[in-house]
Structure formats: structure tokens, C-alpha cells
Amino acid sequence: MAAPTQRHTAPGRTLAILAAFLVALGVWTFAGDPHTPKLGLDLRGGTQVILSPVQEPGATGTVTDDQLKQTVEIIRQRVDGLGVAESEVTTQGSGERASIIVSIPGATNQAILDSLATTAKLDFRPVLIEDNGFAAVVPSASPSVSSSVAASPSASVSAGSPSASPSASATSATPSVSPSVSASPTASASGNGARLPKSVRGTATSASPSPSASGSVKPSATPSAAPTAPITSVNGLPPIQSTANDAALQQAFTDLDCAKTGATKGGPADPNKYLVTCSKDGKVKYILDKAAVQGTEVTGASAGLSPQGAGGWEVNLTFSSTGAQQFATVTGELAKNPSPQNQFGIVLDGLVESSPYVSQAIQGGNAVISGSFTAEEAKALANVLKYGSLPVTLTVSSVEQVSPTLGQDQLTAGLLAGALGLLLVIVYLVIYYRALGLVAVASLLVAAAITYGLFVVLGRQLGFALSLAGVAGAIVAIGITADSFVVYFERIRDEIREGRSLRAAGDAGWIRARRTILAADFVSFLAAVVLYFLSVGSVRGFAFTLGLTTLVDVGVAFAFTRPLVSLLMRTAWFTSGSHWTGLSPDRLGVKREIVPSSSTRPAKES
Amino acid sequence: MSRMGTLAHNLYSGEVSYDFVGKRNRWYAISGLILILALVGLFGRGLNLGIEFKGGSQFTVPSATATVESARASVEKSGVPGADAAIVTQVGSDKIRIQTPPLTPDQSATVTRQLATDLGVSQGDIGVQLVGPSWGGEITQRAVQGLIVFLVLVVVFLSAYFEWRLAIAALVALLHDLLITIGIYALTGFEVTPATVIGVLTILGFSLYDTVVVFDKVKENTRGITSGNRATYSEAANLALNQTLVRSINTSVVALLPVASILIVGVGILGAGTLKDLALALFIGTAAGTYSSIFIATPVACQLQERRPEMKALTARVAARRASGEGKRSARKSATGSTMATAVLDTVDTDEVIDDADGVTRESLSGGAASTGPRSQPKKNTTRSQRTKKR
Question: I want to staple A389 with a disulfide (CB 3.0 to 4.6 A). Which of A103, A295, A568, B25 is the partner?
Fold first, then answer.
């Protein structure tokens, strides 16, 4: 039906390109795994929590991006520990105005709330019992961590420890006194050689006038530090306090399976109590002593390359004066112990980040943790040390729990509203614009298809989730999209009223309407962008959908409606001026006699 | 249909014309009255802010058997602070909504447990929403911030696309819509939620859509108008209004249909929530937006334009021309609107010819065209069809 004329920019070609695009989008949409849009929590049920960071009272300055990152990391760890698939933690904004948005799909759960908002604390705790029995299950895992690297950076220090570890396993095997320790020897024996990848030493031992000064303080510091750190003395037998052998604690330790989901969730730990916990990676479990040094005493931490030529990464650590004394005391005590009691755990949010061993008292408040660090691990640990000690308090700003049933109801309502809205608009357009209305309906359907495809693809690729507000945005967009057609069609009618031929009107009307459509859509898009960047939660979903559909609208108007009208205008039927075209001059009330001649050529210019 | 088509045509040609611009004071008065009511409502009653803004907890219990009384009793039994201040409402046919002052997650768990036990529903089916007291302020602040940023951007864009006077007029219309919507919320006591805010902000886009459509036509009709003496700015603008009237109505109806369906479904099925809040604000705002783009935006734009010296000069020239012999025709007809409109139409046509000659300055050419007169129909049409074919 399209008798191609060379004078027009081939509308057929534009349509062909659009068709190709539609096919490509269709393939992309339905080839992937979920070929339905990813639904937001309010449509499928789940819990959304918005947390806002608040600077700890007394702390100076504002919440830095690094602190925020660290906080988010802890939250993510807790959420991952819940083991709910597709849980998400995202941030928006920065500093004090940042929001951490946690989305957990599925059935609502009170435990989720409890675990999220608590503040993470960092502390240093002597290791009492360690069990990396998992290493036996996965033998290749732990040797790879330790091996030679452990020895090289801490050469001087670790020289002692390999010799210590066999004796340690011997000593820990002997005590029949404590049933607890007898439980561990098999594990510690298997792990001993392989473990201990990290060590701690003091820095600048040569430049130690002040360290020696603090060293002299050490004896006096010991008693003061002692209550907080009842560490084992030489052989680690009796001084593991009787409470450590408490049956409940033992039972908890035995029962703890770090490989299980949820075991590495973390959470706040009382610094004045023993702690039974896992390493962050879930490979080792520990009974840890009371906190010997609080994370707040760490004044600085940084990752750097080892200056000792080995080229390994290490973490430098600085304590406040109080922290330095406490640290000197505890390391002094630890150094006397056999493995594993010569280690201390760096505990963040109840999980052991690292457990380096000590072979001598570290004076002066400067320490280096070295071992088989990669650059990233070193930086991560430095961040833990630096920001774990300045935890950002989180307040629960908003919680929204939607049951899956309600979610389903809302989805149904949204879809129904969409269908009804579409139907009403279609009926109106067809009644008012007749055949042109059908063009508009076809355009709407194309727009709907593209939008659906984009929802699916964006959901899959970028994790875009369609919320109820987003669905509403899409429905509202039906109106905006149809408005573009109304503007165009009215323009065509205007041109016909001015006495133009159908075809000329189609073209001239487009040129005028194009500007209006672009300007009006630009304003809509502007609103969407502003909304998107300045809002949180559901508003964002709405803004995103609105912006997306506005773009789709422009695309469809240019690549579908316009070429289609252009083609139709050339058909004999349209030029016949039938009442059903929606463009018959009669119907438009044009009084001038401009009934087109039989040729498709407009000949009314007289 | 054809009668409607005739009306549309007559509106377009100016044979039927309503003097929106000339009778602006009447519409200003009506708007003024509504705005005063809105302000009274806003400052007298204030807005009924949802818990998202003032902080609080909300529990939605899906139960067809539970009553407002049983739910209230259950909440009070839970013994959390503020439980006696709980607002319990029936939502739809099968849901009970309970709002309390802000609770901690622990307290909310207590309430949820109590409700689940007393009302015989599964704990997991109870929808819970907790909003901290300061978070609401944050949301409000961001909404206001977003509004201001948006308004500034819109004024900048419209100033660039049209000119600053039209941008100001559009802004006035926008604030008008905004205030009316907020006023209606205050007067009726509808709850304001984030979804309402979304709706209101979206209205801004809608309201502007209409205004842009009208202004585009105004711009077209008034192009090069100062070099002629056939119509004043206000008359040209008024014709534009009449010409786009059908379009404005159609775009508004088409925009309102989906909104109405959201409203119907939202209220009918869900009873309350995002959909209803959103659609209600949209519905009120879009209606106000259609009204203001016709009755407020263009008249205000005309007032601003008529203050310009060249427009004053034009008005004087037009008056002079009408007073002279050529004005007889219009004097005879007494209904000046139609003649003037035709005159404007001619001007428009002339402009279109000029528009075709891309790159040639408008003023100089339109002056020339005006001297030969717009009655050079054949020539004009040739040019136009040539252009059309070129594209």
C-alpha cells in the first residue's frame, strides 16, 4: 500500500529499523532467564529498611564516604548472613544525608530488623581456643593462605613461632584438666602448621626511646590492664578462666558450625564477655577472651608495602596512649603463650577479621600486621581498623514490611488499573480520531511492548525492580504518550483546516507538532530526573519509570507514529476523505470545497 | 461528531471564539477565591500528614473478620507506649489499618505478635511500616528541595525555549495548580503521603505539558506580530488559546483517563495506599493544570507582554487602524473577535512562509510580507507545498 515516493524520507525504512529493534529487544527480553520484570518488594512481599547514619556522639566531623562504605560493608555482611536470596543493600547520597537501603524479599521477619541497626564495634581479643577443623574438610584452603609468605615478612618474629607451634600442639594436647582444650587438640594439630599466616610486630624497634619509656610503664600498666584481659600465663593451662570452660560456652563452641548460613552474620558482642564466634570467612571458629583493647583506641591504620623487601602488603596500626599501654600489656602476655593462645582476634561486629600471632610485647603503640596479604586484603583490614573504631551509628529511618499476599494484591491492582486505563484511552482515541485513533492505539501498544522489554532487561542487567509506584508511573505514562499523538493529530487537523492536502498536512503538522512534543516531553523528563535524584524509595521508582517511558514516548512518536501516518496518508482510502479516517475535511468542519481529486496528488491550491 | 468537528473548526478559524484573555479578570477573581480558600485551609486546618512525614508506625492486618474495636483492644493489650493513641481504621473490606506513634522495632514486634494472636492472622501477613520521627523531616526537606530545583530548571528551560515572560507566566500557573492541590488536601483532610508528593510533583510536569502546548501556539501566532498592525498580542494569544482548546481538552481527558482508572482500582480494590494517594493528587492537579493553562498562564503572559513598549505601540497601531476606514467592517460586526482572529490567521500564514525561508531574519521579511499583504494566497501556498515536498 505504500507507494514509495522519492520526496519523502522513506518512512518504510524507519519502520523497518524500528521493527528490527523490536525484534532484537524481544529476543533479548525472552532469551534471558527471568522474562518478566523484576518486581519490587511492595509487589512480591518483603522488608525494606532505610537506615540513616548518625555520627557517634562525641565524634568530630561528619560521616565520611569511607566510614559509610565500611558501614555498608558491615550491613551487607549481616544481610548476606541471613541467607535470603536476592537481598540487596544499596546506598544513596553521601555523608550525613546518606541512606542505606536494605531490601529483603520474601516473608517478613522481625529478626531482620534487630540485626540491622545495631552499631558495629571493633575490639582486640586474645584467642583462647581456635578450631579450624574446616581445614580438614577443605585441605587445600588453609595451606594456600599461609605457606611461605607467613614466614617472610615476619622473619624475625615467626622464627620463634614455628618452633612454638609443635610444642603448642603438644601442650594443648596434654591438659586433661580442661575438657574444652581436649576437644580442640585434633583440630589445632591439623591446623597448626598451616595456620598463623598473620603476625604482629612493633614498628621502629630501633627508634624506641619512647617505646622503652612506655615499656617502663608496662609493669604498672599490667595490673590496670589485667582486669580487662585475664590472659593465660605461660602454658595456658589454668589461667583460661574457669568461665571459659563453662559447659554452656563449650557447648556453644562445639555446636557452632561456621560453614552454616547465618553463622557469619555478625552482630554486636559484649566486650566484657567471652565470645564464641567465627572468622569472617567462616573457616575458623574461636573462643575469644574479653576485649583487651577497644577499637576506639586505634588512632590510625593504613595499608602499605612492606619495607623489608619481601614486597608483601602489610597493615600499619597506631594506638592512642591508653591503647598503646593496653596493647603492650596484652601482646606481652600473648607472646609468652603457645599457639593458638599467642594470637589475638581483631573482632569487628562480632566476627574475627584477622587473628595475627604475637611473639613479643609490642611497645610504643605502633604495630604492623604482616602476612600473606593481597593489596586489597590489606586495605580492607586497614579500613576495618580505622573505621571500625569510629563506628557510624545507624538509626532506622523507615521500615516497610509487606506480606507476600498484600504484594500480590497490589500487583493485581496495578495491572488491573493499567489495563483499565489503557482500555479507556483506546476507546476515547478511537471514538474521537477513528482510523487515526487506531494508529495511536498501535503506537501505544508498541510503546507498551518496548517499555515491558526495557523493564525486563533493566531488571536483569541493572537490578531495576518495578515497584507499585513504578507501575503507577507506567500507567500515568499511557496518558503522556497518548498526549503526544493528540498533539500530532490535532496539528494535522489544523493544517487541513488551513486548506492543505492530507499528505501536506501530515508532513507540515508533524514539523509543528514535533517541536511541541519535544518541548513538552522534555519538561516531563526534567521532572523525572529531578525527582529521581532528590528522592528516596518509592518516589525514585516512580521517577525512573516516568523518565523511561517519556523517552520511549519520544522514540515511538518519531520512529513509529510519524512514519506510519506518513504511509497511511498516501493510501487511497485516507485521501478519499472517508468519515472513518478521522481526517475527513467535512468532519473537521472545513467549509471550503477541497474534496481531493481522484489522483493522490493534492490539487487544491487554487 | 461532525458538529463537534465544526465547532473545532470554528474555534480554529476564529469564527467561534471565547475571549479568555480579555475577560481575564473574571478568571483571576475565580482563581483568587479558590486560592484564598486553599490558603485558609492550609493555614487553618493544615495538612493531614501521613506517618511517613511525622513519623510513626503503621500495621496493616489483612482480616475480613477483625473489627476496628477488636484491633484497638488488641493494640492496647500489647501495652506499648502510645497504644491508647492508636488510630484504627477499616481499609477496604478486608483490611484493618492501625497507626501509632513511632515505635522501636522491638515494640512493633510486640504489637505484631499481639495482633496476630488476637485477630487470628499469621504474623507474616501483617504489613508493618515504621518511620522514625526525623526521617519524615528529611523526606519533606527533599521534596521541597526537589520542587525548587525543578521550578528553577523549568524557568530556565522555558526562558530559553520561549522567553522569560512566558516562563514567568507558566510558573505562576504552576504555583497556582500546586497551591490549589495542596489547599484541597488541607480542606478535605486527605492524608498526605510520599505518594501524594509524587503525584503533586508529577502534576507539575502535566500542567507544564498543557502550558507548553498552548504557548507553542501563542509563540507561533505572535511571531513577527510587532511589525504588523492587524492584531494586538493579546488577541493573537487569545486566538491561540481558542485554536488549542480542543487539543487541551483532549490531552487532559487522555491524561486523566489512566489516572482515573488508577483511582478507581486503587480505592476499589486496595482501599488505600500508594495508588490511591498518587492518583488522587494527580487527578486534582491535572484538572487544575488544564484550567490554569487556559485561564491563567496565557492571560498572565499577555499582561506581561503588553507591558513591553513595542507591544504598547502595536496595540496603539491596531487601535488606530481599526478607527480608520479599514476598521468599518469590524465596527459593523461589533463582535470584533472573529474579524481580528481572521486577521491573526493571516498573519500566521504569512509567518509560515517566512518560516520556510530558513535563516532569513524574521522581522525584515515579515515587514515585507505585511506590505504585500497576506492576501497573496497562491504564492504562499506554492511556497508551502514546495517546502513540504522538500522535507
Answer: A295
Question: What is d(CA B230, CA B239) in angstroms, rounded to the nearest whole number?
Answer: 13
Non-local CB neighbours of A24 within 8 Å, separated by 6+ positions = none
By Cβ distance, the residue of B52, B244, B254 closest to A425 is B254
The CATH number corresponding to A11-37+403-581 among 3.40.50.2300, 1.20.1640.10, 3.40.50.2000, 1.10.443.10 equals 1.20.1640.10
Cα of A51 vs its chain's centroid, Å: 14
Number of neighbouring beta carbons within 10 Å of residue B56: 24
Contacts with A483 from chain B: Cβ below 8 Å? 209, 251, 254-255
Contacting residues of B for A402, CB less than 8 Å apart: 127
- Looking at CATH, the fold of the domain delimited by A46-114 is given as Alpha-Beta Plaits (3.30.70)
ipTM: 0.73
Amino acid at B156: V
Residue B109: which of A43, A396, A120, A51 has the closest Cα? A396
User: Contact at 8 Å (CB) between A389 and A297?
Assistant: yes
Decide: A364 and A200 in contact? Cβ < 8 Å: no
> Chain B: nearest CA to A386, how far in angstroms?
29
* Residue A555: pLDDT band with limits 50, 70, 90: very high
End-to-end Cα distance, chain B = 33
Residue A340: cis peptide before it, omega within 30 degrees of 0:
yes
In chain A, domain spans: 11-37+403-581, 46-114, 118-392
In B, minimum Cα distance to A109 occurs at: B124
Per-residue CA distances from A158 to A119, A356, A359 (Å): 35, 11, 7
What is residue A231's three-state secondary structure? coil
Contacts of A579 in chain B (CB under 8 A): 2
Query: Amino acid letter at B241?
Result: L
Amino acid in position B161: Y
Q: Tell me the pTM.
A: 0.66
> What residue numbers bound the domain in which B91 lies?
56-131
Q: Residues A265, A268, A269, A271: is their CA dihedral positive or negative?
A: positive
Query: Which whole-number Å values give the CA distances from B35 to B39, B168, B201, B283, in the listed order?
Result: 6, 18, 19, 18
Query: Rounded to an integer, what distance in angstroms lies between the CA atom of residue A206 and that of residue A595?
Result: 105
Which pLDDT score, from 0 to 100, does residue B50 have? 81
Q: Which of A42-46, A482-486, B255-259 has the lowest mean pLDDT?
A: A42-46
Instruction: Answer yes or no: do B157 and A420 touch at CB < 8 A.
Output: no
Nearest-Å Rg of the Cα atoms of chain B is 28
Q: How far is CA A485 from CA A422, A427, A444, in A?
A: 14, 14, 9
DSSP state of A245: G
Q: For the segment A48-58, what is each residue's pLDDT rounded down to a tens digit?
A: 888 887 765 55
Cβ distance of B138 and A414 shorter than 8 Å: no
CA atoms within 13 A on the CB side of A264: 19
Beta bridge partners of A276: A287
Mean pLDDT score, B253-281: 80
